[in-house]
Known about the structure:
Blueprint lengths: L1 H29 L15 H7 L9 H10 L7 H20 L19 H6 L1 H6 L5 E6 L4 H14 L2 E5 L2 H7 L10 E5 L6 H13 L8 H11 L2 E6 L4 H12 L4 E3 L12 E3 L3 H11 L29 E6 L5 E8 L9 E4 L9 E2 L2 E8 L8 H14 L3 E6 L2 E7 H5 L4 H15 L6 E7 L2 H25 L7 E5 L11 E3 L12 H10 L7 E3 L3 E3 L4 E2 H10 L25 E6 L4 E6 L12 H5 L12 E3 L19 E3 L2 H19 L17 H11 L11
Parallel strand pairs: 1-2, 1-4, 2-3, 4-5, 5-6, 7-10, 8-11, 9-14, 21-23
Antiparallel strand pairs: 7-13, 11-14, 12-13, 15-16, 15-17, 18-19, 20-21, 20-22
Helix pairs in contact: 1-3, 1-4, 1-11, 3-4, 4-9, 4-11, 7-8, 7-12, 13-15
Bound molecules: iron/sulfur cluster, nickel (II) ion (NI) and copper (I) ion.
The site of iron/sulfur cluster (SF4) has 15 residues, from helix 6 and strand 16.
Amino acid sequence: MGALTDLIYKGAAAVASLTETAVKDAAEKHGAETKIAFPGTAYFLPTIYAATGVKVRTLGDLDACVGVLKSLITYKDELGDALNAGLAVAVGAEILQSLRYIGGAAPEDDGGIGFVPDPVIRSLGVPLVTGDIPGVAVVLGEAADPKTVAGVVKDYQTKGLLTFLVGGVIDQCSAEGVRMGLDYRVVPLGRSITAVTHVVTVAIRAALIFGAVRSGDLAGLLAYTKERVPAFVNAFGALDEVTVAAGAGAIALGFPVIVDSDLGDIQVPGALVSVTDHAETAAESLRLRNIKVKAKSVDICMGFASAFEGEIIKKADTQAEFYSGANPTVELVLKRGPDEIEDGKITVVGPDIDGEPLVELPLATYVEVAGARMQTDFEPVIERKLHHWFNYIEGVMHTGQRNLFRLRVSRGAYDAGFRLRDLGKVVYHEIMDEFAAVADKCQVTLVTDEARVREILENEAMPRYRARDERLDAMTDESVDTFYTCTLCQSFAPGHCCVVTPERLGLCGAVSWLDAKATKELTPTGPNQPIQKSGVIDERLGAYESVNASVAEATRGAVEKVTLYSILENPMTSCGCFECVCGIIPEAKGFFVVNREYAGSTPSGMSFGELASMTGGGVQTPGFMGHGRHFIASKKFAYAEGGAPRIVWMPKELKDDVRARLDSTVKALYGIEGFTDKICDETIATELDSVLAYLQSAGHPALDLPDVM
Length: 709
Ligand code: SF4
Ligand code: NI
Ligand code: CU1
């Protein structure tokens, strides 16, 4: 053990003295009062804040932190104490990186994106809980042979992992043609080893955002990252003591460190492991962190993985395009009787994608599913998946749905032999895999013949879409006798449970009542459990005894009372991955709503990130509530407080997105025309006085309502 602890202490001491000097120099140069903050976070310097509760705001605040840092380095020949020294390195690295952002300046280029803002972490919630992103890899150092590190990173990419790169590996991967960026799930953080802090703070903020871990609770923090953040570290190349000490910090957080040099007997089983054969690095890393990758194997010539979902195909690289703006297009999934279709039959009707690019064609993706447990309600649930499945194909890009979409096949894919039939293979394979419980048989037809596509569009698809929309519109909370819990996010937010009703989708925006119903059918003991609606306590609040009982059970007593329609009285809890958050503006007698994508300020003086930090982790915070975009135009939004007419401020983009539905809801319920235009946005005002002035001049109905609280 001696050799390892020696290295860790040496590295930690080096970082400590480096940090101390840098802080002193910065304070002398800029003054102790100078502001210091990472961009886009409500958690100050997250490691320091989470571990100690200290809110660093100025350079002067850092002195005390350097003191804490040094106190963590108490020399003892015990690995436990040495791990504390590793945490000291995490603190030191965070301070050193924060100095790059002095006074809100954009930092010098370090070859990566640097600090990861809170909204990005929140957006990762759903893919992480669904296993779409099965884990997080941190790849650092500089490989002896660039091909080896690029190979490992590409392997993670095809498995859907989120990989962060630190150090020389960034340039090595880039030279080897690894595609990078959040969309490709390979994120370069920076060339300096201290840039590793930017992934450490992601794990730490996950504990604060989703886990309701309180700042200052170091033990709770370490337990959370160890149990719930599926991350590990791969260190390439020669190891200096600073890298080893940083590795000790990772181990303290519960992340195994796999190095490609031979550590001999200083290895620590399960925590610090040598894997010298690069062909084994990925598999061994996943095994050590117990990460299971959902195998996706379709017999097509191109890659097929969730990691390709964000791939963009430019027009110049496109072999064939199917675009509603140019040709009729349609996607339709239909339920059929068992004798009406032939399982596994894939048919192409009309010309394939051969010819000089750009080949432009109509397209109908016509999918028929039969099964004893198949329901017409599942048609749209499966149909919406087509978008994701097509995007998972390397060399295929898909946007939109139903009769309005754009699908591109790249020239690379075409040259490799990809043809229309392969789209059918993917659809068939995925339906039989993901929807195995309801699909006994499936048949896929791809039509490019224009007359036939038009026929399907006009005679079958449009009437079917209309019928579904009518059913959705008619489907109210009153018209059903079952709601559903959703506890998918409990892997990150153990105390949280969503209640999903026809008029209130999950706060992530990804789970509607129909989705929940389908999931219950597909995995009976899964995350969506039915709640029989009974024991009305208060209709206006949406309070039910059965809902309370189910939520109490699902949260193991953490939440005992929840209302479906109130923001002020026992509002639903949030996990952290909500699309929007709302809060009160008492002076305007209303609520404002802000979406995750909006980076500016709101009339509350706070940004989305700051507001979001007021709620989450399964805790009820009356007055603040996370919710889905779609919920804004629901007749049940803030119903107990007076409904949608209470909305006084939203970012412009959000207004435009919900306008049509919101206008019609408010008109139907309250008889008010053109309501969305009465809502203020950032292009009009964000300062309270000017917001109030606008609401007055627009005749906003909230001003005539009683005080909101
Ligand atoms: Fe998570 Fe709620 Fe969405 Fe379920 S509905 S995935 S619990 S946010
Ligand atoms: Ni998607
Ligand atoms: Cu969530």
